[in-house]
Each structure stands twice: as C-alpha cells, then as structure tokens.
Amino acid sequence: MKRKTFYRSLTVALLVMLTGEAIAQKEVPAPQNVYARQNVSLNGDWNYFADLQEQGYYDYRMNPTKWGYFVNAKPQNPSDLIEYDFDMSPTMHVPGDWNTQDEQLFLYEGTVWFKKDFEIANIKPSDRKLLYFGAVNYEAIVYVNGKKAGKHVGGFTPFCYDVTDMVKEGKNFVIVKVDNKRHKDNVPTQIFDWWNYGGITRDVLLVTVGETYIDDYFLQLSREAKTGNRKSSNSKYIDFSLALNREEAGQEITLSIPELKLKQKFVTDDKGQINSQLSVPSSKLELWSPENPKLYKVEIARGDEVITDEIGFRTIETRGRQLLLNGKPIFLRGVCSHEETAYTSRRCNSAEDADTLLGWARQLGCNFLRLAHYPHNEHAVREAERQGFLLWSEIPVYWTISWQNADTYANAEQQLRDMIRRDHNRAAIIIWSLANETPHSDARDQFLGRLATTARSLDSTRLLSMAMEVTGASNYVNRLQDNMNKYVDVVSFNQYIGWYRDVNDAPKMKWEIPYEKPVIISEFGGGAKAGLHGDKGQRWTEEFQENLYRENLAMLEKIEGLSGTCPWVLKDFRSPRRPLPGIQDGFNRKGLFSDQGKRKLAFYVLRDWYESKK
Ligand code: GCB
C-alpha cells in the first residue's frame, strides 16, 4: 500500500471509531452537463420531518451517534423502542424549499431529515452510479442505505457522490440531513437580505457512467489564437478542452458540430485530458447575441459515451471604458433578480419558473440580468441563454464575510469553482462576480484577490467584476476607490441615492471613477407598495419610486464609461429584514413588479429609458 493511501485508510478508520459512522470518501466532481447523461430523476415526494435538537445525529452527550436517523430503523420486535418513522412521516416535493411547503416550517432554520426510496435494475459490472444534487441549502449530509456518502456545504452549487459500492439491484434508500442554520463563518454569512429557503432545492439524479467517463469539457469562442493557430480576421477560434474522470491516455474523443460541418478527433494525453483550439472560418460562424441567440448542437463522443449540448459562440471584452460584445460596443440594459418565483414567491427550480421572470425582464426591454446573489439553477441559466439574455453570475460573498477564516475562504473558493465549472459553456454568462458590498480591509482584499486569481485561471473567456460601494462622498462628489480595481475588468457599484439618501441630492451628484474600465451600476432603486399612490415625496408610494427612477437615470447617464445598469430589483421578494406591517409584510418592496406581477409606475420610466438605449 502506498504511504498516502495507508494514511488515508488510517484516518478513515479513526473517524469510524470516533463517530461510529462509516465515512466513505465518495465525493466526485459533478459531471459537466449532467442532464445529458444517462440518469433517472429522484425528484418527487420525499418523506421528511424536522429535528430541532438534531437528536437524529447527536446522542444525549452531543456526540455523533451511529444509531442516527440515517439508519432508517424499523422495529423488529413489538417491544422495540424507535421514536421516528420516515415512512409514516409526511412528504414534500423535491426539488423545493420547505418554507413554502409546510406552514410550520415557514420561519424554520435548522435540521430537516429527508428520505427517498428508489429501485435500481440491471446494474452492469462496469457501471458507476453517481448521486447528483443540483443544490441543497445550506449543509447536506447524505446517506445511502444507511451509510454516509458525504457532507456538503454551500446552498447554491451542485455536488455529487460516487455511490457505486453503496447501492444494489432492487430497493435502495437515500437519506439527507439538511441544515440551513445561519452562521457567521458561512458563505453567505449570518445576515443577508433574502429568504433563507431551506431544503433540497434543486434536482436529484442518479447518474450512470462507465469506469472511465467524460468528467468535464469546455467549448467557447476565444479572444485569442492559440496552440499554433495564426490570428486572421477570416478565422474564429474555439477553445476546446476536456477531462476524463481519471488519468487515462489514448482515449479517442470525437467532437462534432454538424451545422458547421465540423467533425474532429482528439486523443487524451497522460492526464486524460485534451487542450486544443479549433479554427473555423468567420463567415461560417453565426455568433450568439441577444438579438440572435444562436446555439449550435454539439456532440462529444468517446465510443458509446455520447454527450450532446447546445452551445453559443461569442466574445466579450473591454476596450478602455467600452464593453464589446462580438467586437461591438454594447450597453447592458439590465435588472437584478433573485431566484424566487413570480406569484408564489418560493425558490425557483425549473425553466418554467424562470420563464415568467424572463418575460417580465423582456417587457422592460432588458438584454441583461444580474443573477443575484448566488448561482441560480442550471435550467434558469440555460433558459435565459436560449432567450438571448446576457448574464452576470455571482457567489454569495455578501457583506461581512469572515475574511480571516481559512475554512470560510475554502468554502467561497469551492462555490466559485463549482459555479464556473457548471456554467463555463454558457455563452450567455459574460461576467463572473466575486462579491457584493464588502467592507474594505486588508484581509478582505487578500480574500477577494485570491478568488479573482482563481477565477481568472479557470476561465479566460469571461470578465470579472464585483458589486462595490462608493467610499468617499462629500460635497456631492462620489468617489469609487477600491483596491479590487486591479482584479476586475468591469467596475460595478451599488448606490441608493433617493432611498438611503435624499433624492434631491441626485441632480447635484458628481462621480469620480478613476479607472479606465467600463462601469456598470450593479444596483439602484427604492421601495414601493404596488397600488399605494400619493405624492412623489411620500415614501412607499409608486410615485416616490417613479420619481426616484427618473432622478437616478438622469444622474447615472452622466457617468463616463457607463456601460450598463441593473436596478434593484425585478420583483418584490421575501426577506426577513423587511417587517413593516401593511407595506413590506416580509417582502423587500424594491421590485419593479409586485410579487403578484403588477407593474409599478417606475417600470414605465425604466422601460422608456431602455427603449432610448436600444
Ligand atoms: C443592497 C444589497 C441587496 C439588498 C438591497 C436593499 O445593497 O446588495 O441585497 O436587498 O441593497 O434592498 O437594500
């Protein structure tokens, strides 16, 4: 046995002794484009019950117990004492948040246990079974047939376990302990202005792959000619890289894009990888853009393993203070959006959920969405791409993160890696955002600097940004000064003149942005209760918000290098920080649409302004 393997086995043995749980190190990266793999959905009704004191996990001395709820015990004799029963417990729909599915759990933050039975037939000896979760908020401990598969933290990114050795033909069950308690060292931290929806909020799939399989691939238009290609205006260059799940050389991979009559073979290197670039005639390639969201059918094959995808090709870059899409200046007519459904105000988890919100953004004349404040589900991203929306995707490094905590950093970096990995083939995404409104300090600069360097190393085809704050504001001069300037391609900042500061200041404002980069206003806005009317000086009326938009747009237009705006926010969304009775009632009311889809007066102000920006 190799020394490393020996120590790993020893650690596992020690952990088993200490916790009484068999810990199988089963985590594997979530496969690229998981929906195109052979899979069965484990969505549907899952039994559940809340466990306020986590007695299904800790014994009465607060030590992890090996007789936790995950063993799914059943009485064997009439005298047996077992104080839970998954099968007698109610069910809720997965994917979904628990807050809107069970009245008693509306305000609940803690542990809920979930169980799903499933059957597997015809397992081939070469099959590997992967258990995939689109997202679980916030911490998930996953057990298969009573054994632990692994633990995952972070509520908005996918994770996956290789459960081949844990499942069998016939009946199986998966149990998940989901815990959404907030902690200051989490990402996001203890406080944030949105609803802390708990649960298995995205799809669960059982995926079948072979011993060797295509783990990840990347296919996007590049800004540069590489690997022997010579730059010419008659050609476009598509970066193509691929990684198998293991270091296997000599595997033949065929990449086909039938519409481009492109079919090319590649062979994996010693690392089981391909790193290449294709050159295609410019005249043949239709570029993806909001006006023409062209997606090409792409097929990537390794023998019987065939993955199909739909991929768009575009470039995004900056030139001085200009933002260029496919080489041409573009103004981003954006809006911020939370991942919360229209009308029902629950967590979104499907293309249909996304569709209504995208329809509202289209009515505003938007070509861009800031997906706030965490990665949204894959269906939503793909739907936005099909409909021609450019996207900003971000990780929940929001407000006052524990900058000095190494685990917090590791968590944030993992969320960044997982966000980029899942969506790095989505042409619609033009900006990875690293943070929102973070307080300046050396520790924060180091933390965000490391994240930026990581993001850059993972993807050279997109721009980096983050929602900053204006620091100096005296004598009506707003100065943006942020050490993160050197890491970002686009300077973005939030400002709330008219809401957290007097609206009458707006016409006097001057802006000092000492960076030769495009500027995006990543947030501005104010609240209004739909249907409440009055004077423009009366807070919460639609007229107040309407006037605020008028004043803001006139003010923002004067900013040199303004390349886009993302008002806050598309629709009213739930937030525990918004209790004002009769007005907020638990909703942040800065929406241009009410939670019931009613347009507020400010909608028309923005729509007309965006019309003038087309
Ligand atoms: C912000 C935050 C956003 C809040 C918003 C508000 O600056 O980035 O998450 O919801 O302000 O309504 O105050």
What does this entry show, briefly?
It contains seven helices and 34 strands.
Layout of strands and helices, then pairs:
Layout: H1 3-19, E1 27-28, E2 38-41, E3 44-50, E4 91-94, E5 111-120, E6 128-133, E7 139-144, E8 147-153, E9 159-162, E10 170-179, E11 204-209, E12 214-221, E13 235-244, E14 252-257, E15 262-267, E16 273-281, E17 296-302, E18 305-311, E19 316-319, E20 322-325, E21 328-329, E22 332-337, H2 351-363, E23 368-371, H3 378-387, E24 390-394, H4 406-423, E25 429-436, H5 442-458, E26 463-469, E27 472-474, E28 477-479, E29 491-494, E30 510-512, E31 519-523, H6 542-556, E32 562-565, E33 573-574, E34 587-588, H7 601-612
Parallel strand pairs: 22-23, 22-32, 23-24, 24-25, 25-26, 26-29, 28-30, 29-31, 31-32
Antiparallel strand pairs: 1-9, 2-11, 3-4, 3-5, 5-10, 6-9, 6-11, 7-8, 7-10, 12-13, 13-16, 14-15, 14-17, 17-18, 19-20, 20-21, 27-28, 33-34
Bound molecules: (2S,3S,4S,5R)-3,4,5-trihydroxy-6-oxo-oxane-2-carboxylic acid.
The site of (2S,3S,4S,5R)-3,4,5-trihydroxy-6-oxo-oxane-2-carboxylic acid has 9 residues, from loops.
Rg (CA only): 25 Å
Count of alpha and pi helical runs: 7
N- and C-termini, Cα separation: 66 Å
Ligand inventory: (2S,3S,4S,5R)-3,4,5-trihydroxy-6-oxo-oxane-2-carboxylic acid
Count of extended strands: 34
Q: What quaternary form is this?
A: single chain
SSE class: alpha/beta
Measured by DSSP, the beta-strand proportion falls in 25-35%
Question: Could you explain how this protein is built, in words?
Answer:
With 614 residues, the protein is of the alpha/beta class. The protein is built from seven helices and 34 strands. An eight-stranded parallel barrel has the order 22-23-24-25-26-29-31-32. Strands 4-3-5-10-7-8 form a six-stranded antiparallel beta sheet, with no helix packed on it. β25 (429-436), α5 and β26 (463-469) form a beta-alpha-beta unit. α4 (406-423) packs parallel to α5 (442-458) and α6 packs parallel to α7 (601-612). 45% of the residues are buried. Bound molecules: (2S,3S,4S,5R)-3,4,5-trihydroxy-6-oxo-oxane-2-carboxylic acid. Residues 193, 373, 436-437, 494, 523, 568, 588, 590 line the site of (2S,3S,4S,5R)-3,4,5-trihydroxy-6-oxo-oxane-2-carboxylic acid.
